[in-house]
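Holo prediction — zinc ion.
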Amino acid sequence: MTLTNESRAREQICAFGKSLFDRGLTFGSAGNLSVRVDDGWLMTPTNISLGRLDPATLSKVDSAGNPVSGDKPTKEAFLHLSMYAQRPSAGAIVHLHSTHAVAVSVLDGLDPDQPIPPITAYYVMRIGRLALLPYYPPGDVSLAGAVREVAGRHHAVLLANHGPLVAGRDLETAVYATEELEETAKLYLLLRGEKLRLLSTEQVDELHRRYPS
Ligand SMILES: [Zn+2]
């Protein structure tokens, strides 16, 4: 990634951060974004609102995950690095504490292999199979191991009682997928208790054939 591309990535992180914040998808200093660059990653700093990020002070970490410039990186940097370690094709990662996805993550008795069923085509196309990970306290290193275990097979993970972690080939893809997940979680909660006509296995397989991720 050239310097021009890196500065474009910095602008993009700030623009998407503000957009997510302005629409209530994140709040306080919750949530973090990262983008892969040639010599490491750009990350949002710790204890800052995604609504007022500064391109010049974003954290940069090297390919070993050590901070090299900018403000101190998010405390959840290890979540991102664990996902990237298993997904060489991932160019960006979004992690939010968005309300509806968190609400689903708190429900008891979820199927860990399919916490949200295939309700709509776009959910299947952008998220595919969501993995549910058990609860760990924020910062617990076991959480890194748990993410690493599933990230090769799943680009979207729901951390129980915490929130979603979603990788994409670029930041736009990762943000759109995270938004699709949040809206699908909202639909799923609206429909709880109703008799649902879910997409069939054949319909899901057909979507994966037509739109391979
Ligand atoms: Zn978090």
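READOUT: The mean pLDDT is 95.
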